[in-house]
Structures
1.
Amino acid sequence: MSSVALALRVHAPEYLERFGDRVPLGHRKVLGCITRCRTGELGGVQFQCDSCGSDHWVGRSCGNRHCPNCQKNKTSDWLAKQTDRLLPVHHFLVTFTVPEELRSLLRSNQREGYAAILLVAAKRSAT
Ligand SMILES: [Zn+2]
């Protein structure tokens, strides 16, 4: 169980008792999923280990997209895939937040738009 799940199992009941009437239903569902994930409350699976031959039982996972237990492998897979895509050179990742009003203009004029953004950023970083 992740430390997030453990912390939620300990503190979520009191939190929900105090503020539950103001917590959106979707958030309560996520808390329920994370706190019950792999505990056995969602059922479980019995299997025999190919290596040692022993029988093992594991609790079912919740599968919720917000659950750190369930998303750990997906996150690791995504990170490995992104790492494989890295070019073998030193580089930087720069992220700009463009105001909503300018996004369609930027999409249709990418060359000029990105050049203008980088020019302004370079001028501001020089001052
Ligand atoms: Zn889960």
2.
Amino acid sequence: MLAYRPLASTTPIKALSRCHSTATRFVNKDLYWRRVPQWQNVSIEEFIDYRWQLANTVAGITKLSKFLHIVLPEILAPSTNPLLQHIKTKDDFIQDALEGIAAAPMAIRLTPHILSVIDWGKALDDPVCRQFLPLKSSIVPDSPKLTLDSLHEEADSPVPGLVHRYIDKGLFLALSICPVYCRFCTRSYAVGGNTETVSKSPQKPSRKRWEVVFQHIEKTPVLEDIVISGGDTYYLQPEHITEIGERLLSIPHVRRFRFASRGLAVVPSRTLDENDQWTSALINLSNKGRREGKQVCLHTHFNHPNEITWMTREAAKVLFENGVIARNQSVLLKGVNDNVETMGTLIRELAAMNVQPYYVYQCDMVQGIEDLRTPLSTILDLEQRLRGTIAGFMMPSFVVDLPGGGGKRLAVSRDTYDPQTGVSTFRAPGLHGSKGEKVYEYHDPVPRPATGHPFMKFHLPLGANSAVDQFRPLVDQAYG
Ligand code: SF4
């Protein structure tokens, strides 16, 4: 076990102390990053070093092109997606990716861990690659209902950087940068650098800006629950984690808070780096919170089992052994995790490493990612098939974050759903004011199957293929 020593809040955070050297602890492990030609000689110690991870992160199109030229084979495995079958060579792929990036709302940033778990020979269909690299040929026209800020977060912010939607919960947006940029980010309107299609206002970590948020929380006693997000809190300095956490712990009415970070999924090695103190800062806060009767947790974000390696399990073990509650929030994405086998495996893998599968989100109605969205029927089908396959407390809630700021609702709680029009309706009576009375609409991606087609049914008999598998030929046909 990696022991940790509690520290007073004013004491500088120290690294987790280790009983053995890195080499001794991790013998006979798969050095999976060595499958990337550039990193053939990178040692386990180098890979674990967070400074190495930062130095070798691929950000921007120049670095990406260089990386792709080295990592891709000359000839790629053919795609199963008819839209991508004309892409056969390395040069085809790079050209298509560069054109896709030019039209995308999110910038490019990928960590060495993520770059190492992609199967580059099959990059056209790789479920991890698909989350980060837009290919121009796979992009399909947006439904007219899509917007950049589909959850109306800016409209629900009483002060800049704090979204107050649910009665007792606040979402503190502490920064706008992340270790990776996901194509489908719900905060495409703000997160990451400018792209050719979206101008953003960068939110750097700023004590002055945070102070306005803290003061608002202090004078709003109804706020018991705070999410610290961004961006990704992995890009906050350990001192920032401590400072934010200590300030929130000092507010009597704040009962619980969580740091939102995709870090465990995209840079798990950081938790094993004894020279880096981000995890120590979190552990210290978690323990201090527990002593005060308050929950301090980590909410992370895995979407596919391929993101999980032995290093991820080791990192999750450090958190579990040190008492940090970690929960996962996945996004349901077409061609990534929209089938029972993949989602079931992901849930079981998360449970096995004591990261609670908490939410599976219907992909938000965000512009520029129509090719990643699934119809509501998919999430309903997945929930129906997966419930009962694992203990109830490890079964995630399958939810829709309602466009227009209605908050998260169970997908099965829809009032109406017509798969022919692709429109589902929900209400959110738990919200205050007019929000609690509104009817919210979620719109399936277009195109939809023709009226009266037998695949309209979303409650499929057990034993049939998942709904999405049955929809796919129709969608492919429509686009083909
Ligand atoms: S890590 Fe989270 S906040 Fe950052 S781009 Fe991905 S989804 Fe958005």
